[in-house]
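User:
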Amino acid sequence: MTALLVVTVLAGCTSPGPSPSPSPSPSSSFGDAEAIASLEYAMNAFMAQDAVAVLAQVRWPGGKWSKAYGVRDLDTRQPAQPQDRVPVSSVTKTMTAVSVLKLVDDGLIALDDPVNGLLEGFAVGLKPPIPITLRQLLSDTSGMPSYGDLMFRGVDDYVSGSNQGLTALEALRLASTLPWESRTVGLFQYSDSNNLALGLILEKFRGKSYEQILRDDIINPLGLSHTSVDGEVSDAADLLKGYVSIEGKRVTGGTALERLGSPMPSVVSTMSDINDFMAGLFGGRLISAGALVEMKKAVIGSFALGVYKWSPDCSGAPRFFARGGFLDFRTIALSSSDGRYEATMTVSPAPEPSPRENPGTLYERDLMSSQILSALMEVQDRLCG
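Assistant: Predicted structure:
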């Protein structure tokens, strides 16, 4: 079924993309090479949709493969490379969830403890209508309104607001002006405000910055040497650029847009480092076995604690994925339940008008995320089978 979905969605894309950048060769095994060919087909199909670049890395017990298509920058036309860095947006939320679960492991707070006192302690006007738990913040079932619903109406608002330098507290103060109704508590409602609240809770318990917490909990222990949580990479030579279109003018998005998607600094990373992160997480090297069991439990639909729970692989165990991106990037990181199979892909799509100019843009980007997930499932199924 996965293969059929990929072929059906991408069948209309037949023109060849730019020549791929140099990358490691696929496994010499015929079965592995055939599996990788299915992923290359999908990557070429994205390029045929005028994507700026497509990067992917796949790992399995028998080997590793990576490739890049397209360019880093539409002005310089410098070829993209498999180890280029990209803003991974809401994949950061999976990292936040890991650090929060480490609080639980350390006995500092329990998943089902109410956090109303902590939220009210931010002194930004948040008034939870009923007791809200840490689990509800992690699973986007707290009902907390998203500050983005008030501040950002389209990409042009993101760009014009890029110099506002919103802090997490200021963003939550915006969210507090929106209604937080008791009937929404317990229902899945994607809200960036949840992640901001979790970041502030982490800072309160750890006594250090959110950025340093991610370094101490994830980046340094796993040796993610190409992963950053600060703005110093914005001019790095190996940073892939993303673009949007506003009133017919091409505008560079990238790290500025991603940071505005969450005032907590978003992570900039590589396909390899993200695979290392997912392998470390599901391989049991970041949190306790008990915490990992809790993380994997679907709370509403497919959403668990900071990750999405998805269809089983050939072993019968469910897979899990992290998803990130706005209009200028789309990233999916897919892992087997035991961390032995990893597949991550980022697409920098062609600049498209903001949702204000074209209401269909968000639908197209969400469809792209589904296409990426299908392509990664396809290659994992073939490698696993």
